[in-house]
Specification:
- By secondary structure, the protein is of the alpha+beta class.
- The chain has 17 helices and 4 strands.
- It has a 4-stranded mixed beta sheet, with helices on both faces.
- A hairpin with a 4-residue loop joins β3 and β4.
- α8 packs across α10.
Amino acid sequence: MNHHGFVPGRLRQALLRSKKTATALAAHLDVADNTVSRYLKGQLVPRPDVLRNIADFLEEPVAFFLTPLPPNVDEGSPSFMRSYAAATKRARLSAEAFKERTREATLYLDRHVELPSARFPQFRYGDDPAALSERDLERLAVETRRFWGLGDGPIANVVRLLEHNGAVVVRTDLGDKTLNAFSQWGLPEDRPYIILSDGKQSAVGSRFDAAHEIAHMVLHRHLPREVVTRPEVHKLIEKQANRFAGAFLMPAESFSRSIFLTTLSALRELRDVWGAAIGSMIMRLTELDLISDRQARRLWESYAPMRRRETYENDGVPLEMPAAMRQAFEILNSDCGISPAQMVKDIPFAVTDMAAIGSLPLGYFRDDSLPIRARHAKGSSILEFRRAKPEGG
């Protein structure tokens, strides 16, 4: 990327990503709030020393603020966030800013590496999600499985499925324990971005989150932004995504055939088979009328003590980790000859975000000298290899 002058939009993005306010930045710089406001509007350019101070405060390289912004995502493509409670506004905006960085890194990689094309079905029903019935959601979940050739059995790895079908999947800290996942269909590149929380240590819970985002990408991505942001519509599409996710992970016929007993211990056995939380299976049993209301109440009461632990905590099963972006960065280095040090010059984000986007260790993008120095011969533990003397020498 070519570095030019100060880019106000980068300052705005850095503030959102860091969850810091313009007022806090002004206090740090010891300037009036209006000064930072003028920076954000492009009416005033910070001096080089001030820019370095801004970069330190927001934990970004100086070059970040001098790099032009890429074309924006089409405003008609809505964002979807999965949370069990209302995540803070700052956490949501920070997640949005991280998604923009993920998109920017993907566009950079796509110029050098051939990423899988997006292969997602899209089901259109107008601009009113209420037109979809529960029976429709069950059918569309099955059709999505057929589109991807999945059959009707358990899905081995949902994250890998997404990546094989062209989704960019990243796992990172979303900054709020109630914010579990986030997705958006990127336009004009026509590719989904799915961000999963690494704060959630439950593998089965995270699989459901990923399936929930699949629902949004196939059912709701065509909806206008102004429709999705209506509170009543948002509540409805979240409910639809949950129903779709359950049907996608546990198809009605095959899941029903696997049920022999409707006890908590029996569901524990099926948990590893379907890769689904016990709570999700109880909900599925209810949706498919496989248990009575009384049985459901009894199961929920028995399940209550372990519900939070199963949803959020480590369940002994490794999280499904993304691999495609890491592979793309490694190919960029090995096959295209672009060093990690050059990558962070071309995409000058904070190294922590670059590492998260690529599922790579922090050290991959750092070009620090190693603390290696010569030893004195005396007491050295290094073996000396000497040329053998010729015979007769």
